[in-house]
């Protein structure tokens, strides 16, 4: 579900024609629909309501301050993976009791920062980290609340670069050794092992891995309790898939159907860390066509959104739907299914101006003929879009706009040439 709709061959975000936004704020431009964001947060809150979950928005997917503020205002906590993300979560109104601190490489400084703000849980991913956290906590006269992150060793379920629960990845404690690690800290004065965490990978389009991971988790929780650890939290992570191609994602309820019985049996407080599910379908990236050209029998659309704005196609070979914001009158409606043949289209590559042959947003894609100055919308770009953007090629990071109903406002201004040099000019 999202609030991007074509009405009379013109793309709208909620009640605002996106052309107006491109004209007012320039391109490349990230456009977010507030109704879509809040719909997805509430879909999760509703689907899991019977367990009264602590929902921690994964701030790494989209760290914009104004989006974080909306999340906090609507009852969400935060899943943070760095000191910087903790800073952002707190700045947005997040409080420690609804913040979980993840990441394989927390520094002592970051641990102190988390402990100082009384985060709900540290998701701990290695034996060294566990002992380092215990020492830091002791030095502060505190006891660190810990959820051990297990790698449940499940079959591959998504792209190799984003699958975090197969054997051999850097994430989590091996399921074979986690109990030994836990045994080693029974009675540790700086640590309280109160939870089990898993984050299986992303995006996941089936609820089966949550069932399989959860069942393995149940056995571990029983063993951890036998060791004397008072396990109170089961954190099932994030990873819920979204619609990138057509309507391929599951509703939150499908994940709740398998997770809720497990949490009940575990007699635990449920924690969730959804990111993509909340913000992914709530954002599009608008780019303006600069040139078209033909090279070596290939057709190129060169527009002003590039890999530095949206790196997912380059990094993961990800698929994003792309379509003109103002399709010509004789064109078919934007396709629900790109695998099907689409009349009046031909195979084109959508690329940006960056000096890399890996700079593309779509390859060999059936798209209509476009002209210089046309606007293209790249859909489902709200998660891991702006968050992974860079200044590569000294390109200015895009502006971001939030739409609600018929209103819109800038939530991050476009960078300037001065912004590019500022951190260097601070060094005389
Ligand atoms: C990235 C991440 C998430 C969020 O994943 P989504 O697929 O965006 O829901 C949740 N938990 C952890 C530990 C993560 O690293």
TrEMBL record:
<protein>
    <recommendedName>
        <fullName>Diaminopimelate decarboxylase</fullName>
        <ecNumber>4.1.1.20</ecNumber>
    </recommendedName>
</protein>
<dbReference type="InterPro" id="IPR029066">
    <property type="entry name" value="PLP-binding_barrel"/>
</dbReference>
<dbReference type="InterPro" id="IPR022644">
    <property type="entry name" value="De-COase2_N"/>
</dbReference>
<keyword id="KW-0456">Lyase</keyword>
<feature type="binding site">
    <location>
        <position position="384"/>
    </location>
    <ligand>
        <name>pyridoxal 5'-phosphate</name>
    </ligand>
</feature>
<feature type="active site" description="Proton donor">
    <location>
        <position position="355"/>
    </location>
</feature>
<feature type="binding site">
    <location>
        <position position="276"/>
    </location>
    <ligand>
        <name>substrate</name>
    </ligand>
</feature>
<feature type="domain" description="Orn/DAP/Arg decarboxylase 2 N-terminal">
    <location>
        <begin position="37"/>
        <end position="280"/>
    </location>
</feature>
<dbReference type="InterPro" id="IPR022643">
    <property type="entry name" value="De-COase2_C"/>
</dbReference>
<keyword id="KW-0028">Amino-acid biosynthesis</keyword>
<feature type="modified residue" description="N6-(pyridoxal phosphate)lysine">
    <location>
        <position position="60"/>
    </location>
</feature>
<comment type="similarity">
    <text>Belongs to the Orn/Lys/Arg decarboxylase class-II family. LysA subfamily.</text>
</comment>
<dbReference type="Pfam" id="PF00278">
    <property type="entry name" value="Orn_DAP_Arg_deC"/>
</dbReference>
<feature type="binding site">
    <location>
        <position position="316"/>
    </location>
    <ligand>
        <name>substrate</name>
    </ligand>
</feature>
<dbReference type="GO" id="GO:0009089">
    <property type="term" value="P:lysine biosynthetic process via diaminopimelate"/>
</dbReference>
<dbReference type="Pfam" id="PF02784">
    <property type="entry name" value="Orn_Arg_deC_N"/>
</dbReference>
<comment type="pathway">
    <text>Amino-acid biosynthesis; L-lysine biosynthesis via DAP pathway; L-lysine from DL-2,6-diaminopimelate: step 1/1.</text>
</comment>
<dbReference type="GO" id="GO:0030170">
    <property type="term" value="F:pyridoxal phosphate binding"/>
</dbReference>
<dbReference type="InterPro" id="IPR022657">
    <property type="entry name" value="De-COase2_CS"/>
</dbReference>
<keyword id="KW-0663">Pyridoxal phosphate</keyword>
<feature type="binding site">
    <location>
        <position position="312"/>
    </location>
    <ligand>
        <name>substrate</name>
    </ligand>
</feature>
<keyword id="KW-0210">Decarboxylase</keyword>
<dbReference type="GO" id="GO:0008836">
    <property type="term" value="F:diaminopimelate decarboxylase activity"/>
</dbReference>
<feature type="domain" description="Orn/DAP/Arg decarboxylase 2 C-terminal">
    <location>
        <begin position="30"/>
        <end position="382"/>
    </location>
</feature>
<dbReference type="InterPro" id="IPR009006">
    <property type="entry name" value="Ala_racemase/Decarboxylase_C"/>
</dbReference>
<dbReference type="InterPro" id="IPR002986">
    <property type="entry name" value="DAP_deCOOHase_LysA"/>
</dbReference>
<feature type="binding site">
    <location>
        <position position="384"/>
    </location>
    <ligand>
        <name>substrate</name>
    </ligand>
</feature>
<comment type="subunit">
    <text>Homodimer.</text>
</comment>
<dbReference type="InterPro" id="IPR000183">
    <property type="entry name" value="Orn/DAP/Arg_de-COase"/>
</dbReference>
<keyword id="KW-0457">Lysine biosynthesis</keyword>
<feature type="binding site">
    <location>
        <position position="356"/>
    </location>
    <ligand>
        <name>substrate</name>
    </ligand>
</feature>
<feature type="binding site">
    <location>
        <position position="239"/>
    </location>
    <ligand>
        <name>pyridoxal 5'-phosphate</name>
    </ligand>
</feature>
<feature type="binding site">
    <location>
        <begin position="273"/>
        <end position="276"/>
    </location>
    <ligand>
        <name>pyridoxal 5'-phosphate</name>
    </ligand>
</feature>
<comment type="function">
    <text>Specifically catalyzes the decarboxylation of meso-diaminopimelate (meso-DAP) to L-lysine.</text>
</comment>
